[in-house]
Amino acid sequence: MSEVFVIHLWPPEMFCGVCDxxxxxxxxxxVPMWEGMVLPNDWPDEWGxxxxxxxxxxxxxxxxxxxxxxxxxxxxxxxxx
Length: 81
Known about the structure:
By secondary structure, the protein is mostly beta strands. It has one helix spanning 54-61, and strands at residues 13-15, 22-24, 30-34, 37-38, 48-51.
């Protein structure tokens, strides 16, 4: 049987459920959320799983209580002279 090299031209694309960044492929990361709050792993009540980018997944792993995502502040514009 012959071997064939395949290039996937249109990989599945999803968006991070936390920060809306594009997540290409199946990613493999997910975070528990409920009504916009990101939940810690040991949350006992209802929740739903959402796809996540690696930075949001790493952030969620550090949570000990529910939290809303706060995007990083934008850099200050440089002054031009």
